[in-house]
Amino acid sequence: MNSFTHNSTHPQHTLPFSDNTSVILGGGLAGLSAGFSLADAGRSVTVFESDKEVGGLSKTIRHGNFKFDLGGHRFFTRNEETERFVKNILRNDYLTVHRKSKIYLQKKFFDYPLKPANALLGLGVSTTIRAISDYGKEKIKNLFISPQNISLEDWVISHFGRTLFTLYFKEYSEKVWGISCKNISEEWVSRRIEGLSLGVAIKNALFKLNGRRVPTLVDEFIYPPMGIGQISDRFKEEIEKRNTVLTNTRVSEIKHRNAVITNIIAKNCDNTYDLKGNEFISSIPITHLVSMLNPSPPIDILTAVSKLKYRDLVIVTIMLNRERVTDLTWLYLPEQSMPLGRIHEPKNWSPYMAPEGKTHIVAEYFCFKEDRIWNSSDEELVSMTVKQLEQLGFIKKNDVFDYCIVRVPKAYPVFEVGYNEQYSKILQYLENFKNLHIAGRTGMFKYYNIDHAIESGREVAEKIIQNSKLKITNQL
Ligand SMILES: Cc1cc2nc3c(=O)[nH]c(=O)nc-3n(C[C@H](O)[C@H](O)[C@H](O)COP(=O)(O)OP(=O)(O)OC[C@H]3O[C@@H](n4cnc5c(N)ncnc54)[C@H](O)[C@@H]3O)c2cc1C
């Protein structure tokens, strides 16, 4: 029998529970899609989310009359079933946005993905010839010697040549990941070349990919009119018809006995909850999950966890007394001389993101929590951002009338060379628990986009539903 109790001086807070309760840790897209699918199948669900709103990395912040994502979030998938699922959740309330992006290199703006004429003119004929000849050299070399790719640098050079690596991959990758390309695992880039798209763009521009749908290069994507957070808000609304989503409530302990998770402890400012359940789905960072287990895992597992790193993110949004600043979806800024990594103007994604006559620019800084950027004051961050936007010729300081800063921990799992050894060890340990399931980007330590996060939540829910059907059949 499940039970839901709390201990505090506050009045008893009762929540519906039943014999088939699934407890979900984390109310990002993975946790919510799992919760929605289970609730839709008539099961009992409780979602715990530490933040004041659901959505995790895919939430939309509201600041006065302005809305913005934590870095522009487009929805695109190759999976038609997932596309239908998301459109249904949105009740077909979405915009189709035409993508127009640029990349700022060597003090020039290039179309992104690069167009051959644009790339040729911008790079100059000699660099273009060098890039093509380097690429050809690598292709010929690969015919005779199979490349030994360990790092991102090895992999990119063997696939695109050194000139393209240096021009387009190196600086941006090192800005995003905060480590040398020699230390970024090849496994990541080879599986998800679309994620590191600059080289694909060049290859597409110069050598023409056979027209296949490379997600990074698609021209159109789906976007909810009120921001990407609309997807999570809709999930929450559906789950709450018969179940509970507790925001502002952090899971702090996960108790287990005989390889079974028995209950979790979660806290908010009013209550401490002690919730039992049959199945537990974790979409919170895998490092948090392991460190909250009680009894604690063996020391080698804790050591493995301490070696997994996440990259953090600072979002600086500045509000402007201007109707529009750019006509771009994204602008990529790889140059190391500029701390900024990428910007977007939400009004170019949906006109409902800013009031008439005003606009805002969202600037992304990739960093670690120990870095100067993360620890700078809000005023320093705004002044630094305004200065760079002025340098790029987009704004004047006097246009700025407000700002909003969001510090986003654990935005990207970092795939350092050798990470997989630690990760496999942790996974193997977690697989011992019969009723624990992991899902999502931070939860599974995978470079998942929205579609993958949603799919992973749905897959876990489906597994739970199938297992319980099987149990019932066996009992008959
Ligand atoms: C800058 C940036 C841009 C992106 N752009 C795109 C894009 O354009 N398109 C795309 O498809 N994808 C994009 N993504 C990826 C997308 O954001 C993720 O794939 C998706 O949001 C992951 O959802 P999730 O539920 O797996 O994880 P998360 O969103 O990380 O959810 C985990 C949740 O767990 C909560 N939590 C953590 N600890 C606890 C605890 N102890 N107790 C309770 N709750 C807890 C967190 O608050 C969070 O809400 C982008 C990501 C970033 C960082």
Question: How would you characterize the overall build of this protein?
Answer:
The chain has 476 residues and is an alpha/beta fold. Among the domains are: 4-55 and 228-308 and 416-475, FAD/NAD(P)-binding domain (3-Layer(bba) Sandwich), CATH 3.50.50.60; 112-212, no CATH class. Helix content is 37%, strand content 24%. A hairpin with a 4-residue loop joins strand 12 (260-267) and strand 13. Helix 1 runs parallel beside helix 9 and helix 10 (286-292) runs antiparallel to helix 11 (299-306). The longest helix has 26 residues, at 450-475. It is globular. Mean pLDDT is 89; it is low at 1-12 and 194-198. The structure holds flavin-adenine dinucleotide. Residues 25-31, 48-51, 56-58, 70-71, 73-75, 250-251, 283-284, 288, 313, 364, 411-412, 440-443, 448-451, 453 line the site of flavin-adenine dinucleotide (FAD). Flavin-adenine dinucleotide binds at residues 25-31, 48-51, 56-58, 70-71, 73-75, 250-251, 283-284, 288, 313, 364, 411-412, 440-443, 448-451, 453.
